[in-house]
Amino acid sequence: MPYVDVSGTKLYFEDHGVGYAVIFVHEFGSDLRQWEDQVRYFSRAYRCIAYNARGYPPSDVPTDAAAYGWERSVGDIAALMDALDIQRAHIVGLSMGAYGALQFGLRYPHRATAIVSAAAGSGSSPSHRHAWLRETSVLARAFAERGAAAMAGQVAKSGTRIQLKYKDPKRWQEFADQLREQSGPGLSNTIIRCQAQRPSLHELREEFSKMAVPVLLMVGDEDVACLETNLMLKATLPNAGLFISPNTGHAINLEEPAAFNAQVETFLAAVERRSWRRFYTTPALGTSRVSLEQNGQTRAPLHTGDERSDSNVVILHQANRPADVSPSELPRQVPVRRSPELISAPQIGPVCAFAIE
């Protein structure tokens, strides 16, 4: 079996395909096998590397809790790339893996050419934060005392996992069986050191507002614990798009593999041809409205994916408000002809009336 050694801890990985590298980072409740549909599809055009995090056999399961941690998880991505002589790569993560991918973008922006963050945000939402910290303590103790085999059924039937059973019973059973095979102590230490101690994504708004790496955010509309955080990330990240999958829970890549692959493929293609969010104007969080001209900056064509243009991404995010865009730069509005029936129809009100924080 192929392994890389990271400071004495061996990480198991699989490497398929030829081309530009894509690193797949798995979630808490699974391992690299969760990426089967994605690796089979994308390895036709990319070099796909998926690995098992520390604590997930056949990777090492350290007995010392200090060998775990969210910072170590982020460092493991870089260490894997170093061991395989990969300088830059696209990073695809789900849930815990998505958290690591976003942190990787903050810490190694020169090495991440694109990030897919799927189902990120568990425990980050201010409205769920305290409940999350209580639950992680209980869950860590349960995995340590009862083992993964005893806990797998409870996790697989949770409110954001049961959607997979209704859509694809076979895949749901595979998910539950694979969770039963995991290490109880490994999962317990992962919860304690990686999940319970990691900072909320909401606490990183300032850092995210300056991150120019292209990001595709993906979340299921029934993944309640993650929706609020993904809306925040969309409003904060200057170079991000958001895909919300209907009638979908947490394991979005397992529930809707075709839609997931299509969205990721379109995103990566746009990044590679430097057209992801090109010329978009993005409202920034906050109240300041500083024009490009006031800052002495000139408007330049934005070529996303070219590191020389990263500053343009940030400038557009911070400065391009409607009041700062000249009329010649706005899209031309085409008059819409309305039928008499529509003109006379009573106004029902807005379809959606909530605000992003």
Question: Which SSEs are present, and which pair or pack?
Answer:
Layout: E1 3-6, E2 9-16, E3 21-25, H1 36-42, E4 47-51, H2 70-83, E5 89-94, H3 96-107, E6 112-118, H4 129-146, H5 148-156, H6 162-167, H7 169-180, H8 184-195, H9 205-208, E7 215-220, H10 224-236, E8 240-245, H11 252-255, H12 257-272, H13 310-319, H14 340-344
Parallel strand pairs: 3-4, 3-5, 5-6, 6-7, 7-8
Antiparallel strand pairs: 1-2, 2-4
Helix pairs in contact: 2-3, 4-5, 4-8, 5-7
Walk me through the structure.
The chain is α/β, with parallel strands linked by helices and 357 residues long. It folds into two domains: 3-272, 3-Layer(aba) Sandwich (Rossmann fold); 281-324, no CATH class. Helix content is 40%, strand content 13%. It contains 14 helices and eight strands. Strands 1-2-4-3-5-6-7-8 form an eight-stranded mixed β-sheet, with helices on both faces. Helix 10 links the parallel strand 7 and strand 8 (240-245). The radius of gyration is 22 Å and the shape is globular.
If helices are DSSP runs of H or I spanning 4 or more residues, what is the number of helices?
14
CATH topology of the largest domain: Rossmann fold
Q: Specify the oligomeric state.
A: single chain
Question: How many distinct beta strands?
Answer: 8
> What is the overall pLDDT average?
82
CATH architectural type of the largest domain: 3-Layer(aba) Sandwich
Largest sheet: 8 strands, mixed
- Classified in CATH, the superfamily of the largest domain is Alpha/Beta hydrolase fold, catalytic domain
In the sheet with the most strands, the strands line up as: 1-2-4-3-5-6-7-8
> Given the C-alpha coordinates, what overall shape results?
globular
Beta-strand percentage range: 5-15%
Helical fraction? 25-40%
- CATH level 1 class label of the largest domain: Alpha Beta
Order of helices and strands: EEEHEHEHEHHHHHHEHEHHHH
Q: Could you say which structural class the secondary elements and strand pairing correspond to? A: alpha/beta
- List low-pLDDT spans: 281-357
C-alpha Rg (nearest Å) = 22 Å
